[in-house]
Amino acid sequence: MSEYVAPVRDMQFVLNELAGLEEVAQLPGYEEATPDLVDAILEEAARFAEEVLSPLNWPGDQEGAKWHDKAVTMPPGFADAYRLFAESGWTALGSEPEWGGQGLPKVVAAAVAEMWKSANHSFSLCPLLTTGAIEALVLSGSDELKKTYLEKMVSGVWTGTMNLTEPSAGSDLAAVRARAEPQPDGSYRIYGQKIFITYGDHDMAENIIHLVLARTPTAPEGVKGISLFVVPKFLVNADGSLGARNDAYCVSIEHKLGIHASPTAVMAFGDHSGAIGHLVGEENRGLEYMFIMMNAARFGVGLEGVAACERAYQRARDYARERIQSPDIGVRGRPKVPIIRHPDVRRMLMTMKSRAEATRALAYVVAAAHDAAANHPDGETRKRNQAFVDLMIPVVKGWSTESGVDIASIGIQVHGGMGYVEETGAAQHLRDAQISTIYEGTTGIQANDLIGRKIAREGGSTLKAVIAMMRDLDGQLAACPGEHFAAIGSRLAAGVDALAEAGEWIVANYGRDVRAAAAGAVPFLMLLGTVAGGWQMARAALVSQRKIDAGDSDPFYPAKIVTSRFYADHVLAQAPGLASSVVSGAAGVLDLPEGMF
User: Fold this and answer.
1) Looking at the whole model, is its pTM more than 0.90?
2) Residue 528 placed within a domain
3) For residues 425 and 74, what is the distance between their CA atoms, to the nearest angstrom?
4) Do residues 123 and 198 lie in contact, with contact meaning Cβ atoms separated by under 8 Å?
5) What is the DSSP string of 58-72?
6) Which residues of 286-296 are buried (b: 16+ CB within 10 A; e: fewer)?
7) Do the Cβ atoms of 203 and 74 come closer than 8 Å?
8) Which of 90, 214, 380, 465 is a plausible cystine mate for 180, CB 3.0–4.6 Å?
9) DSSP 378
10) Number of CB atoms found within 10 A of residue 515's CB
11) Kind and range of the H or E element at 166?
12) In a domain, 462, yes or no
């Protein structure tokens, strides 16, 4: 069974040539993110991912997290790996220096996080949730809460969770019923149950800081009546030391399709005296604050899709190089060859490779825009980049994770019957990837957010600006000789036209027939992701050709051009069909009477 090898070369290319690391490093606060430093970080992260996390992935899946007497024990090796992870500073990579973080750009942190997710999906979920909790406290917590919790969370000594979902609520947060009763000392007693809480309990860190949605006695009904509370597993004394055990317990963990080494907890708050919690920000603004965590988590979950594509591709590629079966097609009586020689296997591997590279490129470009939105000195530039990030977050989350499931499934197909046998490892990637399309809002929820809040509400203005940037490549592609660039240019132009047509239809019809628009929401999200990925792959091909023209003989560059050509012919070519589903597909979705299902 092959181990993960971080694709550092492609990560460096995307960071430097597509995401614009040099420009990011000129933003206030990011000056230390020089190419040399970033290369060193990537190399060291790759070593940790390959040597520490990847070897734990398969045994962790087989062993799984164990629950006993309201406590969770992680699989062997996980606690030691986490302590080394924290001691090595990986938990602090993108956090504020004020709280002990390294303050590196999000785009650098994204590349490193991709490695954790590819090497060991289950392990990576713990720092993902902690990062979201840190961001929520940084932006919304009081000075006292920040002083009490942030330094330990940033250092990784404590981890964090987000507690939204309840048994009767699901994704409908308006139905949250957990309650928070104010106490004379200014604290609250929290009562209620939360489900699907990732790393709700474990034995890797000395404390777990839960961020919990609940209602105060005077709260109005619906989402306007939700508040956010910090509820630690162990109370924290005035001097920062750990105090008594809080009344917040894991009463069971779920038995899941995948990510077996990631404990998914049912959390009970206040079964005895009440769990002591502290209000974050103001009452009744909890959903607003929780969305800080959720947006951070949505991008992070999108990276899980990128990581699934890469890991499934690597395993399938390695198997295809070793598996000997049948002679070359059209040749009789010759020796059998590795299956990577067979055209259909090559088609599958190229599908996997190209979509891994396209999802990575789009995610890193969005991360770099996030850095500009947060730190650029010009207000208009910040606003423009934030609009781009807001538009693309549902795409990075939805399109990348759906791609991860598709690519992991293709990986099993490359293995043939052996892919269905657990010992090859291919099936684990599919089992693990499936949850990413559901985490932090299903693909349908992402798509409805995209067409409603991100497109219809603003009349499609940001989408039109992105389409204009895509069209800016037309002349550059036309100027490059050869059939590869002619195909890339033609397919991208057709894809952008299809995206523009579907976007205009959404804007025109959302207000007068929202059900018809919603019927095409997921196809539209997939359309935007497909075309945006093609845009980035076309940019990558242009950069590669410039490198070749300048005399660079690195075989990476012609390989990138061929991969971009494949993406154009086999993935981007699907864009007009997706647009047709958006514009003309509502009747087939909505017209069948319910009784006929």
Assistant:
1) yes
2) yes
3) 20
4) no
5) HHHHHH--EEETTEE
6) bbebbebbbbb
7) yes
8) 214
9) S
10) 9
11) none
12) yes
Mean pLDDT score, 226-247: 97
- Pairing of β 158-163 and β 207-214: parallel
Nearest CA-CA partner of 199 in 266, 126, 271: 126
* Count of CA atoms in the C-beta half-sphere (13 A) of 251: 12
Neighbours of 165 (CB within 10 A): 18
Catalytic annotation, residues: 440
Could you tell me how many helices (H) and strands (E) the chain has, helices first?
Answer: 21, 12
**What is the C-alpha separation between 275 and 187, in angstroms, rounded?**
10
- Domain coverage including residue 550: 442-590
3-state helix, strand, coil in the chain (%, to 5): 65, 10, 25
Distance (Å, whole) CA 116 – CA 57 = 11
Q: What is the DSSP letter of 198?
A: E
Contacts with 25 (C-beta within 8 Å, 6 or more apart), sequence order? 31, 32, 33, 34, 35, 105
Q: Is the dihedral of CA 128, 129, 130, 131 positive or negative?
A: positive
407-452: per-residue pLDDT in tens? 999 999 999 999 999 999 999 999 999 999 999 899 999 999 999 9
Q: How many CB atoms lie within 10 A of CB 24?
A: 25
Q: What percent of the chain has pLDDT over 70?
A: 99
Length, in residues, of the chain: 597
Tokens 């825009």 -> residue? 369
- Is-contact 451 510, C-beta < 8 A? yes
302 contact partners, CB below 8 Å, separation of at least 6: 363, 393, 396, 397, 398, 400, 401
Q: In the predicted model, what is the mean pLDDT of residues 390-396?
A: 97
Residue 288, amino acid: E
Nearest one of 246, 175, 181 to 210, comparing CA atoms = 246
Asked whether residue 579 is assigned to any structural domain, the reply reads yes
Return d(Cα 401, Cα 398) in angstroms, integer: 5
Beta strands at 242-245 and 234-236: parallel, antiparallel or unpaired: antiparallel
The total number of structural domains in the chain stands at 1
CA distance 227 to 220: 11
* 66 beta partners: 73
Residue 513 lies in a domain: yes
Q: What's the pLDDT tens digit per position in 127-184?
A: 999 999 999 999 899 999 999 999 999 999 999 999 989 987 666 666 788 999 999 9
How would DSSP label each residue in 85-145? HHHTTGGGTTS-GGGT-----HHHHHHHHHHHHHH-HHHHHHHHHHHHHHHHHHHH--HHH
3 state DSSP class of 307:
helix
Phi, psi for residue 168 in degrees, rounded to 5: -100, 0
| pLDDT tens digits along 513-568 | 999 999 999 999 999 999 999 999 999 999 999 999 999 999 999 999 999 999 99
DSSP 527-543: HHHHHHHHHHHHHHHHH
Rounded Cα distance, 385 and 396, in Å: 15
What average pLDDT does the structure give for the chain? 96
Burial of 190: CB neighbours in 10 Å, binned 0-12, 13-18, 19+: buried
Q: What pLDDT is stored for residue 171 in this prediction?
A: 63
- pLDDT band of 330, cuts 50, 70, 90: confident
Calculate the CA 116 to chain-centre distance. 12
